[in-house]
Amino acid sequence: MADRRARTATLLMHCPDRPGVVAAVTRFLATHGANIVDLDQHVDRAEGVFFMRVRWELEGFALDAEAFEAAFRSGIADHFDAVWQLHHQDRPLRLALFVSKMSHCLYDLLSRWQSGEWRVEIPLIISNHDTLRPVAQQFGIPFHCFAISPENKAEQEAAEIELLERHGIDLVVLARYMQIVGPALINAFPQRIINIHHSFLPAFAGARPYHAAHARGVKIIGATSHYVTEDLDAGPIIDQDVTRITHRDSIKALVRKGQDLEKLVLARGVWAHLQRQTLVYRNRTIVFS
Amino acid sequence: MADRRARTATLLMHCPDRPGVVAAVTRFLATHGANIVDLDQHVDRAEGVFFMRVRWELEGFALDAEAFEAAFRSGIADHFDAVWQLHHQDRPLRLALFVSKMSHCLYDLLSRWQSGEWRVEIPLIISNHDTLRPVAQQFGIPFHCFAISPENKAEQEAAEIELLERHGIDLVVLARYMQIVGPALINAFPQRIINIHHSFLPAFAGARPYHAAHARGVKIIGATSHYVTEDLDAGPIIDQDVTRITHRDSIKALVRKGQDLEKLVLARGVWAHLQRQTLVYRNRTIVFS
Amino acid sequence: MADRRARTATLLMHCPDRPGVVAAVTRFLATHGANIVDLDQHVDRAEGVFFMRVRWELEGFALDAEAFEAAFRSGIADHFDAVWQLHHQDRPLRLALFVSKMSHCLYDLLSRWQSGEWRVEIPLIISNHDTLRPVAQQFGIPFHCFAISPENKAEQEAAEIELLERHGIDLVVLARYMQIVGPALINAFPQRIINIHHSFLPAFAGARPYHAAHARGVKIIGATSHYVTEDLDAGPIIDQDVTRITHRDSIKALVRKGQDLEKLVLARGVWAHLQRQTLVYRNRTIVFS
Amino acid sequence: MADRRARTATLLMHCPDRPGVVAAVTRFLATHGANIVDLDQHVDRAEGVFFMRVRWELEGFALDAEAFEAAFRSGIADHFDAVWQLHHQDRPLRLALFVSKMSHCLYDLLSRWQSGEWRVEIPLIISNHDTLRPVAQQFGIPFHCFAISPENKAEQEAAEIELLERHGIDLVVLARYMQIVGPALINAFPQRIINIHHSFLPAFAGARPYHAAHARGVKIIGATSHYVTEDLDAGPIIDQDVTRITHRDSIKALVRKGQDLEKLVLARGVWAHLQRQTLVYRNRTIVFS
């Protein structure tokens, strides 16, 4: 018996803002028998752009993915000059986790997978250190170590890309992976690599943000999950959260408090992606509700 | 020259959930020349109810309020069995503020009005004490004192209702008004009376919530803005917020910290109403974005 | 080589508020060679009670635990009529985790232990269901299942107490244990049982708080960690936290968002206990910083 | 009859961390008859610095300010190489408010003063524009307009300093004053000028932070109150707070939401100063509880 959760399709689209887009899309879907489950739209008036996410039940819907593509293109997309993606939620997404030496985000993600909280597959974990191999083994997930040096970086990342593609990875999660990811890997997974940065970006981008936060004497620290682009720590932000600190908190205390934030904010960022709630436009994200 | 902000209409509606509602409504609006500015919809699957808020520019829209009513009823509402309200934002709403002896919410609301942050009119302030008359005078607003006793309560509230109706009041704001409002007044302004309660409801309903919070030893206190119904402190919640406290905070400190919450949460609740973002259904609010 | 973290002692005390307590205690410690690391005091003026936590390095301190007891009693405690506890942080505390069917808090606590984030020992996990045995096994921790029925409850809890005492358990953590704990167990571990309740207490005490929160239409949900007393969900609160929700959140979404809160708030409550930062007085906690 | 609140003294001090400081200070105070009301201490282990705030009742205390100075210097300060300030809370502090064209912080501060929530005096308001003169007049406070141009800036600020000193101003509050304050004014009021910056510093320092936040696509905005130093927006932070935003929020909406934060964070920063809870050390603040 099929999983009930699998039986929906999600359309993400944006186009120049013009009257009648919502009417046209919802009429198109209704015509083909869709029962709309969620619809969220947004108009950015400053940019003049219309954004929409709509999700409907596949039960009773007349078009398969191929037929949808042809019909939607000619019926809607060409007319409104729309950029769009269709996602059939008929199989679990496949995640690759990248880690280094810190385990808190790794444990958190693996727990969500193993407990069934998230309906995903995690075929492999990649690291630049061997430290966390026992955690991967304990959860029964293949662990691949690619030590990175300036000399071998391009070559190692090429091997990683090959591995990711061979395993049909949909999304790469950098779960406190302490290496700057190179352009080849980024370009192989555009808007499909999510990183957790341990600060409230754009404050304290780069290395050692807790040290920098302590030195500046801020009263609140944060964490940021974002899509990775070639600009370090400058990609589109998916989620952020913060926690209050005081002068009593040493750098070590900031690290401890911050790790709880990192787990939460990374998980929420990945969850939004899994739900196909995110759409990137000009280095910002629309996170539909 | 007309205020640009005045030139929109907002439709709030709910109906049994059926396919095609969004399509029908947006097509209806498009047919009559509406340029949709905001559209937010929600389906409560457990209840099987569809909710929608849609706002459009009146510029170029073919129907005035009367013509809309006739066309929308026959074209949409009867077909989908919809309950709906149309709001033309072509004039400022008229607010009456009810206060007792504490001034913090009163100052906050008057400041938002006088500074132009809110485009509203405040024709009168009503109180059961004379204490805050000087504040009303300073802001140039007529102040009406209705002392309330068990014996005269019904009579006094009848006089208040008469006064409110004579001044064409759209919304009553209980800005720390320390009297239980009677049924006649509540029924005269259904879903048009907003109260601020100084706790995180449903915790600490009733009198002296800061004392109760202190006695219980909670680590967070809150405030709640809600529509007033005949059940005390049990009406539909519009907004809530909280702040962290510690064992160091005396009851006096809770009051001081809580007052900042009360100002904020009341203002946000009133703002949501002014924007016509709120819809009440079975003692809960939909607060559209 | 000894763990640096182990080399401190912590004194928690309270007494009637009188001038000179801080001076007397700090002079007492200085006289015996203590280097104070942390000192936090609080006076509850309404109750007339003085509270203090002081932590000092054992390196160079002249008194062992026994000698401290004698000297502190005659030198300070008797004079000021003080209630006090001394904790030597020279060994990891021993925790027992109680669970039922939900795993999110269990994974979180086990991860903090296994990663070394927390310096504790977890000699056993107790459950009233067999569901989470695989998780315990995966982390290599003995799992004891005590099925509870109204008939066998007292007997089973007696067996649990025996097991806990045999393993030298310092702290019992109810990590979403869905059974009301009986008085014998509570009295065997006074102020040494911490529970996570999945609401912002005192709102929604008892069963199914997410359902109740949804029905009431609150805009914020919470979680509460507290010491267990014989009054259900009414023991001294250690920590609370909240997250914002909207009308869009189904009960299922509340559960999902709430579980992240539960993990965090339980972990923070246990951490405060581990650090000996908590002191209970009249059903409230002092949580020293 | 004297105001009960006036009858305390507060000592703020820091010195190299050595054993026995707390004991020495509290013994010193006890010897002279002080009943300690609050004591909060902090040791920065990384810096090796001890910080303390202690407040006691003047009733029954044997030393007046002058006698205290002599006795404390020879008895404590010289011995421990301490830097210290004594504050007798026997009169309201005198505040000057600096504003430009935006009124939200001004209304908020004036309301706290006029309602008696804050026991302060506000002898004057200074502005570089005439816009808010009516607000000052409404609250009965003298309003001084000093239009600033690059040519006259030094001269105008000299006049402002003269005015501030003539009125015995203790604290300058920049309540959205949109002018960079020059070094002469800063040096005339070291650690006695508090500014509100409308971002979560160090993110978005400088002009137009809401525009920058919108462009970067952050999911949370903030506000920061800080002491003013010659480095723009880089002085010691007293308080910060944040609020969640979404892609739906236009720049105008950020401004609206941010103004509520600004009011709150500025008020809390000023309050902490009024309570003598703040101590600046190396561009960071200790904010005692």
From TrEMBL, chains A, B, C, D:
Catalytic activity: (6R)-10-formyltetrahydrofolate + H2O = (6S)-5,6,7,8-tetrahydrofolate + formate + H(+)
Keyword Metal-binding: no
ACT domain boundaries: 10-93
The UniProt record lists the keyword ATP-binding: no
Gene3D superfamilies assigned to the protein according to its UniProt record, in alphabetical order: 3.30.70.260, Formyl transferase, N-terminal domain (3.40.50.170)
InterPro entries: ACT-like_dom_sf (IPR045865), ACT_dom (IPR002912), Formyl-FH4-Hydrolase_C (IPR041729), Formyl_transf_N (IPR002376), Formyl_transf_N_sf (IPR036477), PurU (IPR004810), PurU_ACT (IPR044074)
EC category name: hydrolase
Molecular function terms from GO: formyltetrahydrofolate deformylase activity
GO biological-process terms attached to the record: 'de novo' IMP biosynthetic process; one-carbon metabolic process
Swiss-Prot/TrEMBL keywords: Hydrolase, One-carbon metabolism, Purine biosynthesis
Top-level division of the source organism's lineage: Bacteria
EC number: 3.5.1.10
Catalytic residue positions: D233
A Pfam family annotated for this UniProt entry: Formyl_trans_N
Pathway annotation from the record: Purine metabolism; IMP biosynthesis via de novo pathway; formate from 10-formyl-5,6,7,8-tetrahydrofolate: step 1/1
Role noted for this protein: Catalyzes the hydrolysis of 10-formyltetrahydrofolate (formyl-FH4) to formate and tetrahydrofolate (FH4).
Entry's family note: Belongs to the PurU family.
Name of this protein: Formyltetrahydrofolate deformylase
Gene source species: Spiribacter aquaticus
